[in-house]
Structure formats: C-alpha cells, structure tokens
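Why this split exists: single-chain examples teach little about how molecules sit against one another. For that reason, every record in the complexes split bundles all components of an assembly together and asks for one structure covering all of them. Below is a record exactly as it appears in the raw files.
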Amino acid sequence: MLEHGGRLNEVAREYGIPVENWLDLSTGINSDGWPVPTVPAECWNRLPEEDDGLLEAARAYYGAQPLLAVAGSQAAIQALPRLREPCRVGVFAPAYAEHAHAWSRAGHTLITLDDNAPNIDGCDVVVVVNPNNPTARLWSLAQLQQWHSELATRGGWLVVDEAFLDTGESGLSMLQATGEPGLIVLRSLGKFFGLAGLRVGFVAAWPELLGALQEQLGPWGISHPARWVATQALMDRPWQQQARVRLQQRSERLHRLLGEYGLSPRAGTELFQWVVDEQAPRWQQALAAEAIWVRRFSEPASLRFGLPVDESQWQQLEQALAKIQRERVIHVA
Amino acid sequence: MLEHGGRLNEVAREYGIPVENWLDLSTGINSDGWPVPTVPAECWNRLPEEDDGLLEAARAYYGAQPLLAVAGSQAAIQALPRLREPCRVGVFAPAYAEHAHAWSRAGHTLITLDDNAPNIDGCDVVVVVNPNNPTARLWSLAQLQQWHSELATRGGWLVVDEAFLDTGESGLSMLQATGEPGLIVLRSLGKFFGLAGLRVGFVAAWPELLGALQEQLGPWGISHPARWVATQALMDRPWQQQARVRLQQRSERLHRLLGEYGLSPRAGTELFQWVVDEQAPRWQQALAAEAIWVRRFSEPASLRFGLPVDESQWQQLEQALAKIQRERVIHVA
C-alpha cells in the first residue's frame, strides 16, 4: 500500500500529542465540507439501488454523460488497468501515485513523461492528473485534446483525473468532450465537497468502457448512505457557490501566510498550496512538534498544505510558523 | 450484472404501485436492523483510517483473527478469483450466484458439484455458501474440515461464505479454524445486523492471503461512516441477543403462515424461508399484485421469503395469501 495524507491517528501516536489537538493540513480535502443532515434509516438497512437519482444529479452537476458512479475515484483507478491487455502507460512524476501503482500492478509498462516536454509517441495510455497533485500543474484543454486525438487514433486512452478541478472554471475540464472513445475523465466528491469519507466518485467515458468498468466493479460498490448524501450535495447549488468563494479566499490567504514565513508556494489550487523546499523534512517535523500535520513529498523535496478553516486554526498555523522562525528551528534563506 | 433481490424501485414502476406501499420480502436481510444513531460529522468529511477500532471490534465479535474488513463480502467475492492462476473451482447450484460469476469471469473453470454426493477430487478451489442461499442447506463442520484438509494438501482453497450464519450457533462456523492456509471464511454485516446499505464484510484467512487481498482491494474501500457504524453494531451485545430471539420467532411464524396457505417451506434459516413450487412464477406475480415482492429462482422453481417485521406487515402478507387462496388465483394442490 502506498503512503497517503490523512493518517492522523498514527501520526498522533508517533508524536505523543492527542489526536484532538492536531491541525490536520495533510490532505487536499475541503475540511469545511458539505454539511450532512441525518440520513434516512433505510439507507443503512437496505441495499443501494442504481436508479435512486444519483446519476441524474451527477449528470446535471457535471454537465456530462454517460457517467458511472464509483466508490471513490480510487475504485476506477484500480479497475481501469484491468480493462486492457498489458501496454505502455505514460505517467508524470510526481503525481498522485495510485495511478502508476495500479497500472504497474496490472502488468503494464510505465513510461515516465517529462513534465516540460512530454513525448507520448510510445504510449498506448496516458494518465494526467489535472490540476496535478501535488504540483498544481494545469494542462491546457488544447494540449489534452491533442493527446486524446493522437491516442484515440491508435486505440489508446487518455485518462484525465480531475479530482481537484471541482472548484475551478468549467472551461478547464475535459468533461465536455467525454463520450468519445479513448477519453476517460475521473471526478471525486472527496475534495471540493469535502466528502472524502463517503467514497463516491464518477467516471465519464464512452458507453462501452463504462459497461466494462461496471462489470469489473460489480454491484453495490457505493454504500447506500453515501449515494443518498452524494445526491443531495450535488444538487445543493447555493452551498456550492458559497464554497467556491470561501475556498478561493482561504487559498489566497494561505499563499500569503506561507510566503511571509519563508515558505513561498511554487503553485497551488483552491484546495492546497505546494511548497518546494530542500528542508521539507525538517519543516514537517517542526510543524508536527506544534501539532500541525502537513504532507511531505521527496522528489522534489516539498510540502503540501491544505487549508485552515476557522480563525483558531489560522492562529495555530501562524503561531507555529512564527515560533519556528523565532526559535530559528529552521534556517530560512 | 446478475439479478438480485431488493430492486424495489424498478419493481414498483413495473407493477404501477407506489414504492411506499410495497412489502419487500425479496431479500434475506434483517429489515429490523441495528438502529443507527447520528454519525459524527468527521466520518463524512475525513478519509477513513485503518486503525479506528473496527478490526478490534470485529475480532471480539467473531472470535477470529486474522481478519480483513472489506466493502461487503461482494468485494471479497470479486477479488479472490484474481489471486490465483486459472484453476478448477467447485461450486454448488443453486447458490448465491456471484461466486460462480466472479470465478468464471477471472478465467477459472467451474465444476458444478452434486449437492447430494459432492466429489471434490478434481477441484483446486471449492466455494460453499453455508447455510446456502436460497436452499438453506447447512454443511456439517466435519464435512467442511475434511474438504479443507483435502484441498489444503494440494495447495487448494476452501471458501466458506457464512453471510447467513451470524444468527446461528457458533458451533456451525468455520471461523474457529481460520488462520490455517487454504481456508477462507466470509462474513457480512448485511444480513443479521440488517446493515446491507453499509457495505461492510469481513474475510478471515491466513495472513499471506489477507495481505494479497488487501493489496488487490486497495485503500479506502469501506466508507468512513460505514466503518464507524459497523464498529458500534459489532460491540452492541444487548441488541445482538435480542435480535437473535426476535429473528427466530419471526422465522418460525413465517414457516407456519406459509404452510397454512399451501406454501410449505422446504427449508429455512432465521432470515428467510425457501419454498419449492412449480408455480413459483405465478405466485410471485400474484403476490406482486398485492404489493408484496418475493425473490424467485428458476432451478428449481422456488421462492424465497424474507421476514415481515411488524403486525401491519404480517397482516399484509396473510391477507394477500388469503385473497390468492379465496380467488383461486393459483390452484394449490
């Protein structure tokens, strides 16, 4: 299993600080997520049914069809590689590592693409996380369309993981082109909606691919309460509009704050800021000593900061940064 | 996708009767399930973590370890066939059809075993649903142990699906022998606990198998709210004791009632009664005309009746049976 953010129980034990004292900024999940009301009892007791309105709500929200609901985009990430004979799969690095892991495990050959000058000539499949996690790199629609058309010509696939695009402009999404063979777009309710616990995501692609994926995933992959909550969240337009505004404000504030303490982000999305710093391991430890947990990456040495939500969280972060600076725990250039 | 009970939205539309008027007896799920309290908000918002107490609660409840929590036993049913090279797999018929479907889809060769004189000599894997669904057939521990030992000798597996055993005597379960190579036992929170919407089940087996299965299933398969609810339900001993008594009483009452109207069950568990009848299709339709939905099987022609819960449900069933008898809709021998 790969390492991920969010393992707070484990971290709390390791640092000997009670779990409730921590400010967890280790994920790119909106921790001010959609407020879940009481779930009807039958959601717990009865098997979920496919025709419960979830897909209609998703089609309206994403403006795309055909769509398939899956148990988090992770379920699709794991199943897609099983739908092709072993082939050559282009991936970027660093990127959300579960993609490469899943394709490799299913017997495919990985080709690492150059971020600056990607050459996909030798690829049957290309996987793009857009915007990328953690680098926040955003590929243009024109570039993605060119790759799709090139890959589709030779029976290949372009997989675009848009887990972090929910908050952004719709003009950045490849959802509008889905339905054509060779293009697979992944979406998740985990990040923008802050419903990571639900395990609900969507795959937009051409009908034959979705049929094969559905058969591969089998029945009842998504829990019944999750289907009900997801349907309500997708339909709640007022919350979505307010959340977009709040996230943008917080993301800008985080960008400024980190910059003030020598951690200028190289890039960011509306859900996280990415800081490249040789001393990333020391920063992670120093922040953890102040009960703040951030995600660290090795290549390049970098940190990903999720967004604080309320004033007490902003203060905890600012005071920790100030203390690290004051006590010269880390020499900031 | 295979057909299953529980598709009530679809059935309601087909018969033109509003979904809320139906008495759904089409599943073997305890519809008087564990009462779910309000779930903490963080269960929806945060990714689930592995070290949250679910496994400890499950180990205490099942008295078995090692255990792996999975997103319903269905997740294990689909993944297990991917952990072996193509081989010969013995299955019984009729039985819960997802097993045979999953092994066949993964490229294995199915061998249908004779219920009365099963010969497993040619099998590398044998799958037993115990008690069986829908026939309620229960294999003895001695028989299962013999098969396990025979299969294990040649590197084979015995898979015992105990989804319907939660209510029964612990002396009927193979859980006590798990940990030894070659024995895989599946459990589910869907049936006895009536938490089918949750998608939580457990696999008990030897550590290497569980490690490979975990790797195959990937992270976060079970939703966070589901993990929280499952943990509470597994620890609620008073509810479990009361539920066992109630289910036994209802199952006996259903057995008597069906017998009084010419539908003597051939066998049953504490969660359903199984009625073999040439006229099963006509019975299913006649009951549906009274807004009662039962599950029908073709080979042999038979019906599976789940348990009514409250007096109004018992009356709806009895009045429907009386009306069908009175109006001679079906000629009962």
